[in-house]
């Protein structure tokens, strides 16, 4: 028998998918870790599970308690599922710039959703800081604190990284991923570098995020902007602190969209915008490294979460981003 134990037992062990059209283009093996196949639909299920389990083990989260988080959506969806499966309540504080699909999903899952104006991290009313304050004022509640809670990157150090290593039989040459909290990138990089320090670990960054300049020059500089949700940062989170990074690659939205549509039309994969950034960066890294290399990235979540946006002509036109 091969039976998974509920939602929790179904998180992780995702397939690694050969992205054929991009392999043909580059002469490299471009492989995508299918995190959209997690039961909550994104890479964030792993972090959500580790954060809740860690709080339980430390005795911080007790039966009937509430999990509070500031999230762009996917972490909230993962947390809401796990809260349902384990009998906790869930309160999500979300910037009002995020897609309607994600807010609707959170409400359907029974989370209390509080949309708040999107203001920079330095503002005390930033959604992340607000969620910490709200949690501290509640009885029997924890703040998931995904950006600085190291249970997040531990999920990827203990699961995603080893899975990629085993699935490629240790032949991986390059690893590239965009970062939101940095949990995925850092956890996988730390694990892979221990296995083989020659594996090139590269941060993919959208325009308007500070990590590209930080890795290139040691200074955070943010220029331009991006329509991609869930990635990019203006600071080095505790999860990103000390993560090995050999290089960084910056990707424009237009290029990420071209890649998202190629994944859809040529590879049959319906993916969100951050996956476009990731695969575009994997292709750029493949071109740098040359044919014959194996490069792994993350397929973060499904395009169905962005149907009203990057798969909607009017929305794209309003952003000046209509693909050819
Ligand atoms: N892609 C999407 C769609 C996300 O929601 C997130 C998380 N916010 C990421 C990528 C990045 O993951 P991480 O937080 O592990 O850096």
UniProtKB/TrEMBL annotation:
What is this enzyme's catalytic activity, as reactions?
A: O-acetyl-L-serine + hydrogen sulfide = L-cysteine + acetate
Q: Which UniProt keywords apply?
A: Amino-acid biosynthesis, Pyridoxal phosphate, Transferase, Transit peptide
- Which EC class does it fall in? transferase
Q: Which is an annotated GO molecular function term of this record?
A: cysteine synthase activity
Q: Which top-rank group of organisms is this from?
A: Bacteria
This entry's Enzyme Commission designation comes to: 2.5.1.47
Which part of the chain is the Tryptophan synthase beta chain-like PALP domain?
Answer: 10-301
The record's family statement is: Belongs to the cysteine synthase/cystathionine beta-synthase family.
Name it: cysteine synthase
Q: Which organism is it from?
A: Fischerella major NIES-592
Its ancestry begins with: Bacteria, Bacillati, Cyanobacteriota, Cyanophyceae, Nostocales
């Amino acid at each position: 028998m091969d039976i998974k134990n509920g939602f929790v037992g179904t998180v992780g062990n995702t397939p690694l998918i050969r992205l054929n059209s991009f392999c043909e283009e580059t002469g490299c093996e471009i492989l995508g870790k299918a995190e959209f196949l997690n039961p909550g639909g994104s890479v964030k299920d792993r972090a959500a599970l580790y954060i809740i389990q860690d709080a339980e083990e430390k005795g911080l989260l007790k039966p009937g308690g509430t999990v509070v988080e500031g999230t762009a959506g996917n972490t909230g969806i993962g947390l809401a599922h796990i809260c349902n499966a384990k009998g906790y309540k869930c309160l999500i504080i979300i910037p009002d710039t995020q897609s309607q699909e994600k807010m609707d999903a959170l409400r359907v899952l029974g989370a209390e959703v509080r949309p708040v104006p999107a203001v920079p991290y330095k503002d005390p009313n930033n959604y992340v800081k607000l969620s910490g304050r709200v949690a501290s004022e509640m009885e029997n509640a924890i703040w998931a604190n995904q950006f600085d809670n190291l249970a997040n990157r531990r999920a990827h150090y203990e699961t995603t990284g080893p899975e990629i290593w085993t699935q490629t039989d240790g032949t991986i040459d390059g690893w590239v991923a965009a970062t939101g909290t940095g949990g995925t990138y850092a956890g996988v990089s730390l694990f892979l570098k221990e296995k083989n320090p020659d594996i090139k670990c590269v941060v993919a960054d959208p325009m308007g995020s500070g990590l590209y300049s930080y890795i290139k020059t040691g200074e955070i500089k943010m220029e331009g902007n991006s329509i991609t949700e869930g990635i990019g940062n203006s600071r080095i989170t505790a999860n990103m602190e000390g993560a090995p990074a050999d290089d960084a690659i910056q990707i424009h939205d237009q290029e990420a969209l071209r890649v998202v549509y190629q994944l859809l039309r040529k590879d049959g994969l319906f993916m969100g915008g951050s996956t476009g950034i990731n695969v575009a960066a994997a292709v750029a890294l493949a071109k740098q490294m040359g044919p014959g290399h194996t490069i792994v990235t993350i397929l973060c979540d499904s395009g169905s979460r962005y149907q009203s946006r990057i798969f909607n002509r009017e929305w794209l036109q309003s952003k000046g981003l209509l693909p050819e």
